[in-house]
Sequence to fold (251 residues):
Amino acid sequence: MTEKHLRELLESVRSGKLSSEQAVERLKHLPFEDLGFAKVDHHRALRQGYAEVIFGKGKTPPQVAEIVRAMLRQKASRQNILITRADTKMFAAVKRVSRAAKFHALSGVITVERTREITGKGMILVVSAGTSDIPVAQEALLTAQMMGNRAEHLYDVGVAGIHRLLDHRGKLAEARVIVCVAGMEGALPSVVGGLVAVPVIAVPTSVGYGASFGGVAALLGMLNSCASNVTVVNIDNGFGAARVATCINRL
Fold:
């Protein structure tokens, strides 16, 4: 439930369109619904502006499907549902619960779109260094879109061919927030940060050879960026970057 829907509910009670008993019935699962194996946080959209996101890894397909079912029961809120780090078995289970579910195989994301309302003030641009970074970049892109942002992407514009990035300087300047995804030595966010006057959220990926240490080299490089508008999230955390970008884009 969002603040908007809570206000509408209270107004319905005040005007007599809804009884107090009906209002209580709608509110009784706040702040959470206990499924035994999970406590679904229906109150999160009211507190944080967006519904709980399901992290699929480590959960069974039936568990994921049951959480989705609980979220779908909140019909008044019409919040989009996002599942990250999912697989085809989880998708099959979710699809039986919601025909609107879509599986984005490259990023392992499942989406259930219930609204296309845009609440962000500007455009979030997701930039990735190489084609191998696209799975993490797509996780960020889908997260930003499902959270009510206008989000676009630039793929394969890394520093090994810097002219590919510079060809899109207009698009970089148009963005209100940039999510920059890179593996190897993680140099791209510093370059992007030096070209724009907006926040750049850097996402190190685990892409690279042995001395990349599974993304640690990129992480450390980004943490030591000389571009002062660059901040960093965890390795392969496209979701976290887009969530922070959404917060910034609503300010």
